[in-house]
Amino acid sequence: MAQETLNSESAPAAPAQEVSVVVEKPQVTEKEPQPSAPAPLPEPEVPEKPAVVAVEEEAVEVEKPKVEEKEETKITQSVSFKEETNIAGELPEPQKKALDELKQLIQEALNNHEFTAKPKAEEKPVAEPEPKKEEEENKEEKKEEKEEETPAAEISEEPKVETDAPAAVEVKEEENTPPPPPPAEAPAAEVVVVETEVAEKAKAVDDDGAKTVEAIEESVVAVAAPPAEKEKEEPSAEVAPQSEETKEAQVPPPPPEEVSIWGIPLLADEKSDVILLKFLRARDFKVKDAFTMIKNTVSWRKEFGIETLLNEDLGNELEKVVFMQGFDKEGHPVCYNVYGEFQNKELYQNTFADEEKRSKFLRWRIQFLEKSIRKLDFNPTGINTMVQVNDLKNSPGPGKKELRQATNQALNLLQDNYPEFVAKQVFINVPWWYLAFNRMISPFLTQRTKSKFVFASPAKSAETLFKYIAPEQVPVQYGGLSREGEQEFSVADAVSEVTIKPAAKHSVEFPITENCNLVWELRVVGWEVNYGAEFVPTAEDGYTVIVSKTRKVSSADETVISDSFKTGEPGKVVLTIDNQTSKKKKLLYRSKTKPYSD
Fold first, then answer.
1. What are the CRAL-TRIO domain coordinates in residue numbering (predicted)?
2. I want to staple 517 with a disulfide (CB 3.0 to 4.6 A). Which of 125, 162, 362, 594 is the partner?
3. Do 292 and 299 form a contact (C-beta atoms < 8 A)?
4. pTM of the model
């Protein structure tokens, strides 16, 4: 049975190469959208892509045991997502070989202009006349065969049509006499006239007479037409090939075409290798599948008009739905997808009400992604992927048909044309029903894809984000300290994190010197704690100054507390946070000093 399955799978490929089993991959890609299509909600444009790639890879893994048992050891390193190198010299040998083979295929395609013009239209005018000539010759042969098959009785009845026979004889005599080359076309015209006249007279003759006329017509055509046509056709047949050969010898072959994706040529330098490796990893280093994916991507980008799309003005109504802000701890740019914004009925209708609006949303989303990709660093050691944070709080459920159609449409485009651009997928404020859905599709995902996915309930969302993104980079609405329009602090000012145990107090001290202005800000995720601040001078005879009276702060009161204290003597500012709840609390704070003068 194992041999039968191997034979059935390798049938469409060349038998000489085991790698030809790669033909299975296109079949897998057709199956891929099925598990991902039901995802109604979080199918963020970029987030969905890795999910789809994951489904692709898993589908391949299910079929691998049949054919690729020997290759599993070669691909184990590519299955590991973390810290995959883009330096060609550091790739494992099988991946190096796959990259070289892909380059060769692309170079041949560029030389043959396979990415752009299709020369089918040019071949048609050359191929059409030849079938016509063959058809005429076949007709003439059939007519000669009919003449030979005519009975002797019919031939003996030819004198019945006295007026036709001399005409035919005259035509033959004229054709037998060598006419001058210029008026050679005249006899052909006469033959046509005679044939029409005979045809008209044949109407008044009986059946036997009609057959005789037809026999005469055939004989006239057989005798008169071929010599003239042959004399004309034979010289042209000899001259045409000579002229084509000379033209081909004179015209040099066109130079290879130049094709770029995301501003990077397919074959140029190390940046090109980074692009090609993305397609190879998306197809599990199956060279033919990766090459097909590249060709399809290039074709789609031309049809979709990507280059002109970059300059289109599609409005800013969705700037709160999808936006870029900050970087993760490894330097990846972070993209936030906020689906709860679609609870606004007006925004929802303006975005998904009909096909035209959904098409505009899709173009806007692709434009946003393209602009974000252009900011990535495609050097082998650069950051060329991003982190996706998907906020599912108050997101429309699976009952929203229009949103589901738009996300599925985007999913199909992203999975086929934007491979390996997501380093991490973080889902926050995840409702219970989405977790159930994830458990249902989890068996279809590879370990590589699962390593990219992170899910967090509303209570754990901020804490989960801080594992991958520093608090100073996290927007304030998600528990961080990054705010727009700030002047005192920026993302360059590091934030300290402290976990306060249940029913415990925690103090933070900021030492200061003379003539100093101390500025600080802090927040407790979820708050529901008591907060107070005071200044304690260094001098023993100094007086403690209450900077902020102790008060209870709830999550609805303030998100971030900003405060300052000016002093002319050395000492320290002590902040006290009293957690009287039964839950742990995450404290974030930072400070800076400024020169102070009276």
1. 311-486
2. 594
3. no
4. 0.65
